[in-house]
Write a structure and sequence with these properties.
This protein is of the alpha/beta class. Helix content is about 40%, strand content about 10%. Strand 6 (about 180), helix 8 (about 205-225) and strand 7 form a beta-alpha-beta unit. It is globular. The relative contact order is 0.13.
Length: about 375
């Protein structure tokens, strides 16, 4: 475990930085002992058996420059219409994850995304490649692999065994195209009209039904080697409004405990999964902040529900529940300080701000303003099978 304070990693060095040779030698020794390789000044990770990976994780994180640690905590939206957009993001900014949204499928064709997993010199470079393929209104590979029903339709027409098989088939189709993470299933409990922000994206208004069907969908993704992401914590299904358009409030925390949190209590123990936190104001919990920026929301997930896995934010760049109040670098920093492991934002055609975000995060880490960050990086690496 890390303790609050400065988290200084070795800075990148050039061949002419003779005064830093001793530091570089020490770093290389740590990295090689931990089971990774340094090429062109960066750490290239190599997968290991779980028992080996867990023991080497602190050494891997400690050997990484601060900027690279911060980059592991980002999931950056890329242009799905450009085959090179993900590789540019990974090669230039060394981000730990990319998100493919939108309807274009150029980036999902051929070996564009699978090639992200290979770094300099042909060594492994684990990159989380995410889509939000739920079925119904929210699909990303339907143009390539066919359409699947919405969550509500699945619950109405299929049993849980069939849903697991459907999700496994879908997961294999994603994996074949280089996708490793699906921002699904939706675990929100709700029976609002189909076209509302959650609507038919929910498996229903009964917490037990949501638990069974979302659990089956998540299990199918795991069967295919895709990490499921349960969303939108702590519960968007009965919220007032659409967080894409502005501030949204949920029922009070005690009501969430009785209904919306019940699927999480069951599903978090069923197998590997990440959790996405939504931009939700929760009376009695977040004090007017969206949950993504509220330390209390992360304590609810970590302490009350005992979740030890990866926690991802909803989109910090284009959803007005956040963007109306925070500029992107400030929102990312606030989310990571609050307790998120990974900050996500979607592709912005107006320009790439990843470098700006990384500068802000690196400065904050150097100033001791991101306590627990090394543990978060370790969870990111663990979710990718590195440690």
């Amino acid at each position: 475990m890390t303790t609050p304070g400065r988290h200084r990693g070795p800075r990148p060095t050039s061949r002419r930085a003779g005064g830093r040779r001793r530091l570089v030698t020490v770093v290389l020794a740590v990295v090689v002992a931990a089971g990774a390789t340094v090429l062109a000044g960066r750490v290239v990770f190599e997968p290991a058996a779980p028992e080996v990976a867990r023991s080497r994780c602190p050494g891997l994180v400690a050997a990484m420059p601060v900027r690279d640690r911060m980059a592991q905590r980002l999931m950056v939206g890329v242009d799905p219409s450009r085959s090179d957009s993900a590789s540019v993001a990974v090669d230039t900014d060394r981000v730990g994850g990319v998100f493919v949204g939108g309807n274009a499928t150029t980036i999902l064709r051929g070996d564009t995304l699978p090639r992200l997993q290979t770094g300099p010199g042909g060594l492994p470079r684990p990159v989380a490649v995410a889509v939000d393929d739920e079925g119904g209104r929210v699909q990303r590979i339907d143009g390539l692999a066919g359409s699947i029903p919405s969550a509500r339709r699945m619950a109405q027409t299929l049993d849980t065994t069939q849903v697991r098989a459907l999700a496994a088939e879908r997961g294999r189709a994603m994996r074949a195209r280089g996708v490793t993470v699906d921002l699904a299933p939706v675990v929100d409990v709700g029976d609002q009209p189909a076209g509302s922000v959650i609507g038919d994206r929910s498996f229903g208004g009964d917490p037990e039904q949501v638990t069974e069907y979302a659990g089956a969908f998540a299990a199918g993704l795991r069967d295919a080697g895709v990490l499921p992401v349960l969303k939108h914590f702590p519960g968007h299904g009965r919220a007032s409004g659409d967080s894409h358009r502005g501030r949204v409030s949920t029922p009070p925390l005690e009501q969430l405990r009785e209904v919306d949190l019940r699927p999480y209590r069951a599903l978090l123990a069923e197998g590997p999964a990440a959790v996405m936190v939504g931009h939700l104001d929760v009376p009695g919990l977040t004090d007017g902040l969206p949950a993504t920026l509220s330390p209390a929301a992360y304590r609810l997930l970590r302490d009350d529900l005992g979740f030890t896995g990866l926690v991802v934010t909803d989109d910090l760049g284009a959803m007005r529940a956040i963007s109306d109040r925070y500029d992107l670098p400030a929102a990312v920093l606030a989310a990571l300080r609050a307790g998120a492991d990974v900050a996500l934002w979607t592709y912005d055609p107006a320009g790439n701000r990843t470098g700006e975000v990384l500068e802000r995060l690196s400065a904050a880490a150097d100033a001791g303003q991101l306590p627990g960050s090394d543990d978060a990086v370790a969870r990111v690496l663990a979710a990718k099978g590195v440690c």
